[in-house]
Specification:
The protein is of the alpha/beta class. The protein has one domain: Vaccinia Virus protein VP39 (Rossmann fold). 26% of the residues lie in helices and 29% in strands. The strands form two sheets. The chain has an eight-stranded mixed β-sheet, with helices on both faces. A three-stranded antiparallel β-sheet has the order 1-2-3, with no helix packed on it. A hairpin with a 5-residue loop joins strand 1 and strand 2. Helix 1 packs across helix 2. The longest helix is centred in the first third of the chain and has 11 residues. It is globular. Bound molecules: S-adenosylmethionine. The site of S-adenosylmethionine has 20 residues, from helix 2.
Length: 216
């Protein structure tokens, strides 16, 4: 699948996939969107200090590097799924680490790490990435937060089904939550029918809403 680097409104890069006619992030600002959806309303909204995170769609690595740099006092075990990895030619050109004042080395470490192998990025952040699709992913772990950052329901309906979202429910610890940029009614209704408490939150710049789904 061909991917092209684009520049979003906050100056940070994202990718455009011509075959899907879809971007990896909001064109209004990829870093701003990720900080709002996955950092402020994700890791910063969970009270635990020892947090297991599952990311659905590692992609550019933006959510992982932002989590690493903004985790405050938390110790994080981060699992990322990505069946269609971004090529080295592209991820080495992305401008995220310059813009978030992270070390380029750390960002590249996430991308260059072996698949299906846990590594310690530092004493408070361990990282594991898998090429498995969410639909086929199996693990003994339970997660406190799922960053659900798949392509939109219009583009990728097969990952927003009741069956797959129920799997997310089962992968979560009690008091864990799934967080997503998506605010579609049908997705919220499906999450509710599974047993999640569904919260509509203010969206990132120029998006009205986003969703957090709590497992009570
Ligand atoms: C909207 S992009 C976001 C990627 C990433 N979070 C980022 O910030 O760059 C969606 C990602 O989900 C990945 N993906 C597609 N199908 C998937 C599946 N079945 N399971 C897990 N990830 C999937 C895509 O390859 C893509 O990288």
């Amino acid at each position: 699948m061909k991917k092209e680097i684009i520049v979003t409104k906050d100056g940070s890069h994202s990718l455009f996939v011509p075959d899907l006619n879809e971007n990896y992030h909001s064109v209004h600002g990829s870093i701003e969107e990720a900080l709002h959806v996955f950092i402020k309303n994700g890791i910063h909204s969970h009270p635990k200090k020892n947090i297991n995170i599952l990311e659905v769609g590692f992609g550019t690595g933006l959510n992982a590097i932002l989590t690493l740099e903004n985790k405050k006092q938390a110790t994080v075990n981060y699992t990322a799924l990505e069946p269609f990895p971004v090529s080295k030619d592209i991820y080495t050109k992305l401008n995220f680490f310059e813009r978030i004042h992270s070390e380029g080395d750390t960002f590249l470490k996430l991308h260059n790490s072996d698949w299906e192998q846990e590594i310690e990025i530092n004493e408070k952040f361990t990282f594991y990435k898998s090429q498995e699709r969410l639909q086929n992913f199996t693990t003994d772990k339970k997660f406190d937060i799922i960053y659900f950052d798949a392509f939109s329901p219009e583009t990728q309906p097969e990952i927003w089904t009741e069956r797959v979202l129920k799997k997310c429910y089962e992968l979560l610890n009690k008091e864990g939550f799934l967080v997503t940029y998506c605010a579609k009614g049908v997705v919220k209704r499906t999450l509710k029918s599974i047993g999640f408490e569904v919260i509509a939150l203010d969206g990132p710049p120029r998006k009205r809403q986003m969703t957090r789904a709590n497992k009570l």
